[in-house]
Amino acid sequence: xxxxxxxxxxxxxEQRSYGASLFASIDRVALARLASQLERAVTAAGLDGIVLIxxxxxxxxxxxxxxxxxxxxxxxxLTLVPLASSIGVEPWTVxxxxxxxxxxxxxxxxxxxxxxxxATAEERLFSHxxxxxxxxxxxAVVVTALVLVLPYWRAVAVL
Length: 159
Description:
- About 70% of the residues lie in helices and about 0% in strands.
- By secondary structure, it is an all-alpha fold.
- It has one domain.
- The protein starts with 12 loop residues before the first helix and ends with a helix.
């Protein structure tokens, strides 16, 4: 028996079309302009892959505080993946950093998985405070893992 608050309801038309409308509302010219401005800023700052990957991961976590995970992947993927290839970094490494930090949440409302786990456990398995600590530990582990893999990626010439 599924608890009352955890039943998955089919999304309404408004909810299904939200992602499509976000994608449709992205102005290609503005996106290209943003990408070129980012490229100039990264080049002027002298950032390379060793610095870019952790910065992308942290920026993804910060963006998750205000955007949905799908939106973060869409916006960051469209702007940062082309940037990576223009500065000599393999685009998939930026994609890994984005996707690894996308599940990050700090506020329980950011993660439906958290809400389902909390409701299923009837709030007896863990407290909100413990879950928040676990989320921060997750973020720290992901950023640390990305930093630790950077020398290998440099050795195999993807950075």
